Amino acid sequence: MYRPSAKVRLVINFSLFQLCWFSALFMQADAIFFILVCIAAMFIFVSNKKQSGFLVICLLPVSLLLEILSISLGIINYGSPTIPVWLVGIWVAFILTFNESLKKVMSLGVWQAMCLFAVFAPLSYQAGEKFGALTIDFSLVDFWFAFSAIWAVYSVAVRTLYRAITTNF
User: Which Pfam family, any one of them, does this sequence belong to (predicted)?
Assistant: First the structure.
């Protein structure tokens, strides 16, 4: 059976996540089927299926807690009091990048990872707002301050859990 190299898996993983993200950006709820297909394809190409599945099971609740906190604090709004299903799919796809295309990021030092997450996550959500996937209910400065702080804490939590899972699995 053909097994793609690590570089090929990295490109496939990154590309499939981007397809998930952009489909959600442009289609939101209408993208659910496409997101599920991409997640299935991502799972086919991960290097360690058991570990990646366990990562999703363990890290998805932490990730969704970040969304719930952001919604509860009034930072972001998806037009409903609950997390949209398409967003849950994006989170699953994002977690499936941790062992593949984001593996280097997960191995960075705490401060480096915090900075990366604190900068790029707000940019991603701002792009989502530009295309109508969500609204940001804070001023730009307040949004960046609050969201960067939340994502910095999130990065420490998931990085810690990721390392515990990948070293003990």
Answer: DUF2878
